[in-house]
Design goal:
There is one protein chain. The protein folds into two domains: 114 residues, Enolase-like, N-terminal domain (Enolase-like, domain 1, 2-Layer Sandwich), CATH 3.30.390.10; 220 residues, Alpha-Beta Barrel (TIM Barrel), CATH 3.20.20. Helices cover 36% and strands 16% of the residues. The structure holds 2-succinylbenzoate and magnesium ion. The site of 2-succinylbenzoate has 11 residues, from loops.
C-alpha cells in the first residue's frame, strides 16, 4: 500500500507498506487481524516474509480447526513458538474480532475501556532538511494534531528538535530515536533535556534496558521504552530497573492484545503512564489500537493518526478522521468495528494463502 508520503526513521525510509492481513472464519463469522511487520527487519527482526513463514508453518497448523476459547487459550496454543510476536499478534487480533462479533460487543467493551474517543498525535518522519521538517510539522498542527513526535537519528536530532520547538513553544512535542544511540552519545543528546519534551523514545538498543536506566539517571525528560519492552516480563524489568518513566504499548511487539493489556495493568499498578504506539497500520490495526487506547492508563496521546495521514485508499470501508479536539473516536460496532472493502483489498493483494481444517 503506497504511503501518502515517505516515512523515514533512523533505520530506513519506507514509501509503501507490505501488510500481512489475517482472516479467520469460524461459526459463520469472519474475524480480521493485521501483523504489523514491515518488509525489512529495521524496527525489529520480523518482516512480512518471516510473518508469512511463521504463520504458515507454525502458528496456523497449531490452531487450525482447534477449539480456542479466548486470547489466553490462543497464547497457550502458541507458547512453544519463541518470539515472532508480530506474527502471533495478528492472529490474536482476528480472534478478538471474532469474540466481539459473537458477543455483539465492541473490543473497547471486552477490554473494559471507558473512553469513547482517545487523544492522538502524529509521528513525523525525518525530512530531507530541517526547514522541511518545520513545514511538515506546521501542516499537521494546522490539521489539528495537538501532539507531535519527530523521528531523530545521529546528525538529525538536537537541531531538528530545537527548530520545531522554536516555531512551536507550547506544542506537546516528543522524539523517537528507534535505538540509534549508545551511552557514548549522552553528551550530544544532553541539549534535548532543555527542550521541554514530553519524552525521549527508545534512544538505545532494544536489549539495553540497563543502559536506559543509566541514561534516565542523567536526564530530567522522561525516557520512554518502545522496542525494549517485548513482554510483560520486560515491562517489569524496566519498572524495577527504573529504565524509563513511560512505556509505549504496541500489541504487535508484545505478542498480542492480551499481552498489551497485561502491560497496561502492570504499569497502572506501578504509576507508570503508557501510550499506544503505531506501526503505520491499515484501518484494521488502527481500529485495534483505538480499542486498546480506551483503557484508563493510556494517559498520553497515541501514535494513532487519521487514515489520510497514512493512505489515500485503505482496506477498510471506515476511515478514521481527526476530531477538532485532537482525538479519534473509538469504533463502536461489534469486534474491531470495521468492515473490509473487498475491492480495495483485492487491488492491493500480492499473495494470498488459504488453510482449511479437515472436518
Ligand atoms: O517506533 O513508533 C515507532 C512506525 C514504524 C515502526 C516504528 C515506529 C513507527 C511510528 C509510526 O512511529 C507511528 C504511526 O503508526 O503513526
Ligand atoms: Mg517508537
Amino acid at each position: 500500500m503506497p504511503l501518502v508520503s515517505p516515512f523515514e526513521t533512523s533505520f530506513g525510509r519506507e514509501t509503501d507498506r507490505e501488510c500481512v492481513l489475517v482472516e479467520i472464519q469460524s461459526e459463520g463469522l469472519t474475524g480480521y487481524g493485521e501483523c504489523v511487520a514491515s518488509r525489512d527487519p529495521g524496527y525489529n527482526y520480523e518482516t512480512t516474509g518471516t510473518n508469512l513463514h511463521i504463520l504458515s508453518d507454525f502458528i496456523i497448523p497449531l490452531v487450525l480447526g482447534k477449539d480456542i476459547k479466548d486470547a489466553a487459550d490462543f497464547q497457550a496454543f502458541v507458547s512453544g513458538i519463541r518470539g515472532h510476536h508480530l506474527a502471533k499478534a495478528g492472529v490474536e487480533m482476528a480472534i478478538w474480532d471474532l469474540l466481539g462479533k459473537r458477543s455483539g460487543k465492541p473490543l473497547r467493551e471486552l477490554f473494559g475501556g471507558k473512553r469513547e474517543k482517545v487523544e492522538v498525535g502524529v509521528s513525523v518522519g525525518i525530512q530531507s532538511t530541517t526547514p522541511g521538517l518545520v513545514r511538515s510539522v506546521t501542516d499537521y498542527v494546522d490539521q489539528g494534531y495537538a501532539r507531535v513526535k519527530i523521528k531523530i537519528k545521529p546528525g538529525r536530532d538536537v537541531e531538528d528538535a530545537s527548530a520545531v520547538r522554536r516555531e512551536f513553544p507550547k506544542l506537546r512535542l516528543q522524539v523517537d530515536a528507534n535505538s540509534a544511540y549508545t551511552l557514548d552519545d549522552v553528551n550530544r543528546l544532553k541539549p534535548m533535556d532543555a527542550l521541554d519534551l514530553l519524552l525521549i523514545e527508545q534512544p538505545l538498543f532494544e536489549d539495553d534496558i540497563w543502559d536506559h536506566h543509566k541514561l534516565q539517571e542523567q536526564f530530567k525528560t522522561p525516557i520512554c521504552l518502545d522496542e525494549s519492552v517485548v513482554s510483560p516480563r520486560h515491562a517489569r524489568y524496566a519498572i524495577e530497573m527504573k529504565a524509563c518513566r513511560i512505556i509505549n504499548i504496541k500489541a504487535g511487539r508484545l505478542g498480542g492484545l492480551s499481552q498489551a493489556i497485561m502491560v497496561h495493568d502492570l504499569c497502572a499498578e506501578n504509576q507508570m503512564p503508557v501510550w499506544c504506539g503505531g506501526m503505520l497500520e491499515t484501518g484494521i490495526g488502527r481500529a485495534s489500537n483505538l480499542a486498546l487506547a480506551s483503557l484508563p492508563n493510556f494517559v498520553l496521546p497515541g501514535d494513532i493518526s487519521a487514515s489520510d495521514r497514512y493512505y489515500s485508499r485503505d482496506v477498510t470501508n471506515e476511515t478514521f478522521t481527526l476530531n477538532p479536539d485532537s482525538t479519534i473516536t473509538v469504533p463502536n460496532g461489534p469486534g474491531l468495528g470495521i468492515t473490509v472493502n473487498d475491492d480495495a483489498l483485492k487491488s492491493f493483494t500480492m499473495n494470498k494463502v488459504s488453510f482449511v481444517a479437515n472436518s
